[in-house]
Specification:
This protein folds into two domains: 211 residues, Metalloenzyme, LuxS/M16 peptidase-like (Cytochrome Bc1 Complex, Chain A, domain 1, 2-Layer Sandwich); 74 residues, Cytochrome Bc1 Complex, Chain A, domain 1. It is an alpha+beta fold. The strands form two sheets. The protein has a six-stranded mixed beta sheet with strand order 1-2-6-3-5-4. A three-stranded antiparallel beta sheet has the order 7-9-8, with helices on both faces. The chain is globular. It starts with 5 loop residues before the first helix and ends in a 7-residue tail after the last strand. Strand 8 and strand 9 form a beta hairpin.
Length: 328
Amino acid sequence: MTRRSFAEQVHRRTLSNGAELLVLENHFNPTLALSGSLYGGPLYAPPDRRLIASMTAGELTKGTERRSKFEIAEDLESRGASLSFSSDSSDPVGTDIAGAALSRDADLLLDRLVEILRTPAFPEEELEKEKKRLAGAIRQQQDQTSARAQDAAARRIYPPGHPFHRRTGEERIARLESLTRSDLRGFYDARYSAGTLRLVVVGDVNADAILDGLERRLADWRRGGPPDIPPVPVPDPVPVSESVEMPDKANADVVLATPAALTRPDPSYLACVLANSALGQSSLTSRLGVRVRDTEGLTYGIHSSFHATHVPGPFVVTVTVKPESRDG
């Protein structure tokens, strides 16, 4: 008997409205996991209001035209299921979808997923609560040396309006507080549609039943605009340094960052990921970790990474040290 390749085991279906559906049967245990994305990230929000994307994604589960957030949460949590939506600057293109449930509750998970995607209500009172919560989180971040260092690095290498530029905490709070329900509704109407939706289901399921169920729920959802990804310029690297003073902090964070042209579709992407694994992915086993942590004894943690999706992001090295060891 010929063993099928992994690709041959994946059941695929593309709907007439552009939605791409993939299912992989895995009958090891009676659960399923769902993952998906659509083009609803910060890249598609106005350059001075990138927060609209993350706020829109975050508010999806706060209520639909049929159910409140409490009813949605009770439906899912009473079955041990979960469903979430997120969008942030680490991937300027996408809004990410994640879900999990017992296999016997697959219909419930798919029902709530499609209901939330197609009929969000964006309740005014929930938006105001979330704005206050996020403003508090931003203020808390501004007291962390790591967050302040990374924000300053992003401002240095990317100009205002660039999707990887980071405004100050005060600026982000001001823009957050100015957001309205109509802003979120407008962004949702412009970006959320089947045309760029990809959904993957893996688990103890019948692939044809899942595909048929998703097609029945999604087939008449609007196609939306073309799945375009606007070009994102890569600034020329300019050597510069900046120190952010935070008195009385017991540690200092150092960020070395440079614009990079790497993207996921690049033929060298996997080679770069592998090279970075050896360079600085782990503080315990990478070359940076062995030298700076073990040999020099300057830090407990050092890490390097590429922020590469379908748009080019920075290459970053972060290290936490004692303030007196910063220049070591």
